[in-house]
Design a protein that fits this description.
The complex is a heterodimer of chains A (408) and B (150). Chain A has 408 residues and is mainly alpha-helical. Helices cover 80% and strands 0% of the residues of chain A. The radius of gyration of chain B is 21 Å and the shape is elongated. Classes of the chains: A mainly alpha (408), B mainly alpha (150).
Chain lengths: 408, 150
Amino acid sequence: MKRYLNVLLGVLTAIGGFVDIGDLVTNAQVGARFGLSLVWVVVIGVIGICVFAEMSGRIAAVSHRATFDLVRERLGPRMGFVNLVGSMLVTLLTFIAEIGGVALALQLVTSVNHVLVVPFVAAAVWIVLWRAKFSSIENVLGLLGLTLIGFAVALWQLGPDWGELAASLGEKPAQESWATYAFFGVALFGAAMTPYEVFFFSSGGVEERWTRKDIGVMRANVFIGFPLGGLLSVAIAGCAAVVLMPQGIAVETLGQVALPVAVALGKVGLAIIVLGFFAATFGAACETGLSTGYSLAQYFGFQWGKYVRPDEAAGFHVILLVATVLAAGVLLTGVDPIMVTEISVVFSAVALPLTYFPILVVANDPDYLGEHRNGRVANLLGVGYLVVITLSAIAAIPLMIVTSMGQG
Amino acid sequence: MSTARRTAVVAVLPALVLAALATGCGLVAQPDSTAWDDHAEQAVSDATSEVATARLALETARRERAWSSYTVVLVAQAEESLGTVQDDLSRLQVPPGRDDEAARLDALLDEAATAVEDARSSAVEGRYDDRRVLDALDRVTGRLEDAAGG
């Protein structure tokens, strides 16, 4: 019975923890501008993150070591360093965006300018990273993040013409250029496959001392939780497509993301969604903060993790503190967190090959994984996705320039 | 990296930076007529979005489906964004012979900004059903749609 409850808890937290500021903003922007015509990208992105999260989870369960630890050992310090720099810069950018997202969520309740809230949010994130248990962070914020199911309820309550909505799947709006369509496709793909999700997942597996026996539970979390989390992304886009698109509203703020829910469900629905914003962004801030610490500590060989006392992993906790101060410092300059989010999802797409290629290599190594190394299906999917990821990484920057960040 | 390649990189990088500075960092941008049209079209589209956001936020609050701080934040952010749209357009050099058109667009954006500013003021005071404010938002929406269509 306890095992089934653990599976259920894992799946629920995987759903609740799937959406972050990048998913919230990008899906709402795409829905308001392209309707559901880019949903196919979310589907491809969710399958992709499932493929690589399963590999990294399997690596953690069998080898009891996390991704960066093995990448450096298997591919050498130079490749490991390239992998570290690319992935960590994107994770740091995402960390800044998530802390900004928490401040924006609080601004919707208090109407206090988000810049003034940033220091308190940063302090709260750091205290949680320092003091809270890993399982508490994952379970409490993951379960609270489930309140974002309100988007699916709101979409149903809005009562759209489902046939019309389904007909818009994959059909680019005539007024939009192919370049803009492709740019938002890449951004959506980057948001769905953010590198930190895999680092956090595999390092979390080591933190929670997964063994070979846990591979089944891990797969249930990935193959059930992540796709259901992906459905939340589609619901966010659907709400924006139904309410914002007909009025010509382009999403630039977190408040606009919630507006369809207020229209559909009123104050209670709005309160639930804002709580979901808070949980999703605070949870992702903790995950990206920890991922920054994990990646640096694993590369340089420090003691790391929440499973050891802070004084035994001092270097790891110093990294967390420095990253938090840096994130707060950037946000205190007054930079728009939504703009940081937009940039982070594009650069996430650029960094994807650096993150996922080494995982594929390690997942094929019999020395680390023995009989649990990749099978034919995992390799077929992994190589196929590497091609897609590489194309998306090559296209991201030119598309960003040509379309002026998706403006035209 | 070989010495020759390193020298080439050292030479090319500053040249690229200088080129970027020379082409993209002027105080006043001077687009050609087509580029100015694109900017103007974008400004109208952005203004339409901000006015519609303010209108929907007020309407949602009037139907008691959103609380006041949320409505104020939403409308205030629309007002701020509209200010940015105006500022960005005013920094573009108007192409020769397009002064009248630019003045009309400027007046339209001004009207939109005033309508959203009034909406913010109403939202702060908790008056979500002020007919004058709602009518002004509807009027300017119509004009923006006409401008986008024309």
